[in-house]
Amino acid sequence: MSPDEFCVLFEYDAWANHRLLDAAAALTPEQFTRDLGSSFPSVRDTLAHIMFGQWIWLERWNDRSPKSFPSAADFPDLASLRKRCAEIEADLLAFVRGLTPERIAEVAEYKTLTAGTFSAPLQYTLQHLVNHGTYHRGQVTTMLRQLGAKSVSTDLSLFYRERGAAASAR
Amino acid sequence: MTPEQIRELYDFNAWANQRAFDACAALTPEQFTRDLGSSFPSVRDTLAHIVAGEWIWLLLWLNRPRTAGMVQTYSSKFTDLASIRAGWDEVERERRDFLAGLTAADLDRVIEYQSLRVDRRFAYPLRQMLQHIVNHSTYHRGQLTTLLRQLGAQPCATDFLYYFDWLSGHREG
User: pLDDT grade, residue B170 (50/70/90)?
Assistant: First the structure.
């Protein structure tokens, strides 16, 4: 994949996260943090996990391998989570926009939290991160529905369509 | 993306679906069809939606006729895990043949089609559609994991990187 293709994928990732954060705004604080028994118990915890994933990979790409995730409890409400999301998203998009074909092909070592040291070409870790966000966004949608809230489509096809429409309107 | 990278993405998707199917084998028939209020109510419905989504887009790529109502008819035959696995195996086999012949020029080809859900025509380069459907299956595999956990069953990891670790034998199956 080319640097441009990765830029588009990460713009999709940001677009999808925004849509989900907007959908979560309809929840009460109690619903936002209610344990529904998902991989990360609540809507809040799952949204935080998506964001922590972005953070930890940015750290690894900058040759740092954190030993632990921050705590989702540091984000008691949607506003605090959204604020941190925006910061990490800006860093992430800046990183992706600076990619070169050579950098994408580079193999880097990283330490996972529990399973030891691994190495992978940057390309795979970039693809992994977007796939990871999509996977957990599916979980948020399930929880939003279970809470009786309205869910929202974050299909990649819809993103491409909206992006295409925006481009032809310019 | 190159045709080789697309094939790699679909190898990942096949691996992830197989693991997801395996994780569902522990459920009782009642758990398998229990309405848990997800986008597609049950584990069965979520799996059927993944397979049907992969199938209906493949029909488009193969330039075969598609009509509204087809997806529902197709999905209704998925009554148990065995029928879902068999349906997906068929999709995977045909898609593998299709992807084997894929060229860089094919990826740029814009395919226009009539939406099966709304009265509109859409058009995308094949590359975007191919990416969309893997992303779509990943999304619904995430939902499946939530449902499995809520049923007290053991989900399995289908991370993209875990697939490459698995390929290179770094971790146990």
Answer: low
The answer to whether B89 and B139 are in contact (CB under 8 A) is no
- Rounded Cα distance between A138 and A47, Å, is 11
Q: What is the pLDDT of residue B140?
A: 98
Q: Does A143 touch chain B (CB under 8 A)?
A: yes
- The minimum CA-CA distance between A41 and chain B, rounded to whole Å, is 9
Beta bridge partners of B34: none
- A154 to chain B: which residues are within 8 Å by CB? 139
Q: Does A127 touch chain B (CB under 8 A)?
A: yes
Is B132 in the A-facing interface, judged by CB distances under 8 Å?
A: yes
The pLDDT of residue A71: 95
Give, in order, the Cα–Cα distances in Å from A43 to each of A12, A53, A136: 20, 15, 10
Under DSSP, is residue B124 helix (H, G, I), strand (E, B) or coil? strand
Written as one string, the DSSP assignment of A84-140 is: HHHHHHHHHHHHHHT--HHHHH-EEEEE-SSS-EEEEEHHHHHHHHHHHHHHHHHHH
pTM comes to 0.96
User: Is B165 in the A-facing interface, judged by CB distances under 8 Å?
Assistant: yes
Distance from CA of B95 to the nearest CA of A (A): 19
B139: closest CA of chain A, how far (Å): 4
Answer yes or no: is pLDDT of B114 > 50: yes
Q: Tokens standing for B158? A: 């289908």
Low-confidence ranges of chain A (pLDDT < 70): 170
Enter the ipTM: 0.96
Find the residue in A nearest to B170 (Cα).
Answer: A118
DSSP codes joined into one string, A3-65: HHHHHHHHHHHHHHHHHHHHHHTTS-HHHHT----SSSSSHHHHHHHHHHHHHHHHHHHTT--
Q: How far apart are CA B140 and CA B146, in angstroms?
A: 10
Sign of the alpha-carbon dihedral angle for B89, B164, B58, A15: positive
